[in-house]
Specification:
Elements lengths: L2 E3 L8 E6 L2 E5 L17 E5 L5 E6 L15 E5 L6 E4 L1 E2 L4 E6 L4 E5 L6 H12 L5 E7 L5 E8 L4 E7 L7 H13 L5 H9 E6 L4 H6 L24 H13 L3 E8 L6 E3 L9 H17 L22 H9 L2 E8 L15 H10 L1 H8 L2
Parallel strand pairs: 3-5, 13-14, 13-15, 15-17
Antiparallel strand pairs: 1-4, 2-3, 4-10, 5-9, 6-7, 6-10, 8-9, 11-12, 12-14, 16-17
Helix pairs in contact: 2-8, 3-9, 6-9
The structure holds zinc ion.
């Protein structure tokens, strides 16, 4: 008899029925206190009793998820040890997403993307604060009572650089990215890291949405807020996470801002800027160009051909972090998107886009940041 469970960090799935080797599943809504919040896409669960069997998984409501286009060409993340993940193909008919998996062990995990759990988050914070000149910043408590932290690294007189990740908690690649970035900054033998630490003060928020991350949400916080729509008017009850970061930024200033995300549909790494803002300046345009050129050289996974069309300006644009920061501080302010699927320019048949590739991209982003700071 197969057994499906998800009572662990970021676990999320609903079992509709189990019939022999057939698992009929439903992707559940983000877990929040807001009954009107209707995001659904993230899943992460364990199957036991699977050794020697070929499992048929059917995600019955895939077509009703928030980003149904994300299932076209998507490959499922699978792990036996919850540490090493690989991909298996799926089929999506517009309604149901299916996958078959010949299971080699009793216990196996499936997830939308390689999870980044709270324990690893705490270990990352601990490692970062031990660096010379580092400061742990207590930004406050989340609605579920978790700690919201930033880590400051580099020269106290350096140019303030803010990098935040996981406003959308299911975009776990964003925290893998920040881990890669932090570990490179902590490498005392790395001349790029040392140069940057001498010139800049980094304020890093590896996880903007701890509650949504542990609850296993794609986009929402515990109160049902989409934090990346709260920047114009963050609310102390609904979106205290954004309010805390905005308040700290007002104190430190900001000369470069990066908000790290994952995109469900597009199989590419790309940035989105603030071109639609009336305040978008020649300087911001020049620095954005410089960032993009330097990033392409440092990490060929990054490209500028595919991305979001630059929207027409509406006042709503300022609800997004990178637009609001670009307007408020007049600095280069970007959203970075990594794929949930793969980079189609450099596909990896076994892993697709992965935690490790996200880490490497985070390490590589230091070169374009130095290019920007040199003005
Ligand atoms: Zn996002």
């Amino acid at each position: 008899m197969l057994n499906v469970s998800c009572q662990f960090d970021s676990g999320a799935i609903e079992v509709v029925r189990i019939d022999g080797d057939q698992l009929d599943l439903a992707i559940r809504r983000d877990s929040t206190t807001d009954p009107g919040c209707d995001f659904r896409q993230w899943f992460h669960f364990r199957v036991q009793g699977a050794a020697g069997r070929t499992l048929s998984l059917a995600f019955l409501n895939a077509g009703a998820c928030t980003y149904a286009a994300g299932w076209h060409g998507y490959r499922l993340c699978v792990s036996y040890d919850h540490r090493h993940w690989f991909r298996i193909p799926t089929r999506f008919d517009g309604q149901v997403m299916r996958a078959e998996f010949a299971c080699g062990h009793q216990s196996v995990y499936f997830a939308y993307f390689e999870p980044y759990d709270w324990e690893r988050h705490l270990v990352l914070l601990g490692r970062a604060q031990a660096a010379p000149g580092a400061t742990m910043i207590d930004l406050g408590r989340t609605p579920d009572g978790r700690d919201l932290n930033a880590v400051a690294l580099g020269s106290p007189d350096g140019k303030p650089v803010w990098i935040i990740a996981r406003q959308h908690p299911g975009e776990s690649m964003a925290e893998w990215f920040v881990e890669g970035l932090i570990d490179r900054l902590l490498d005392g033998a790395d001349s790029l890291a040392r140069t940057l630490l001498a010139q800049a003060r980094f304020y890093l928020v590896p996880n903007m949405n701890p509650d949504g991350s542990v609850r296993g949400n794609l986009r929402a916080s515990a109160t049902g807020a989409n934090l990346n729509r709260e920047w114009m008017q963050p609310d102390p009850v609904r979106s205290p996470e954004v309010l805390a970061v905005r308040t700290k930024m007002a104190e430190t200033g900001c000369e470069f801002f990066l908000d790290v995300h994952g995109d469900e549909a597009l199989p590419f790494v790309f940035i989105a800027g603030s071109e639609m803002l009336p305040s978008y300046s020649d300087k911001q345009a020049r620095l954005q160009q410089r960032f993009a050129e330097a990033f392409k050289l440092a990490a060929p996974d990054f490209q500028t051909e595919h991305g979001y069309p630059s929207d027409k300006y509406t006042a709503d644009a300022l609800k997004l972090a990178s637009k609001w920061v670009g307007q408020a501080f007049g600095c280069l302010s970007l959203t970075l998107e990594m794929p949930f699927k793969d980079n189609d320019n450099l596909p990896d048949a076994d892993h697709g886009w992965s935690a490790e590739r996200s880490r490497r991209l985070g390490a590589a982003v230091l070169a374009p940041i130095l290019a920007v700071l040199r003005g």
